[in-house]
Amino acid sequence: QGQLVETGGGLVQAGGSLTLSCAVSEQLFSDYGLGWFRQAPGKEREFVASISARDISTYYADSVKDRFTISRDNAKNMVHLKMNNLKPEDTAVYYCAADPRGLYIATQDLDEYTHWGQGTQVTVSS
Description:
Elements: E1 4-7, E2 10-13, E3 18-24, H1 26-29, E4 33-39, E5 46-51, E6 58-60, E7 68-73, E8 78-83, E9 92-99, E10 115-116, E11 120-125
């Protein structure tokens, strides 16, 4: 069974930065696309960013474009989400997920992701 474990969440003031990390098991990391999603209280889980397995393509939700950056660390089997200029509306539980069809393109469709982490809380105060 593949595993994903997120770390790096916490409390930050608006305008601040935070980096989330996700440790991905070997069997998932090499050939799966990886994505970050988030879920705020009372809202549906939504796409944030994704990166293909071959590190060729990245995608971002419009709400985070130019503020967040997704990257893969191939040496450590990890995926990171660097978040700058955080806003109170970024407050949510952030999840890392793996897409088995994401070799060259990692989809924004959460239904395509078959493995999920347990989530990490990000709280942005105003």
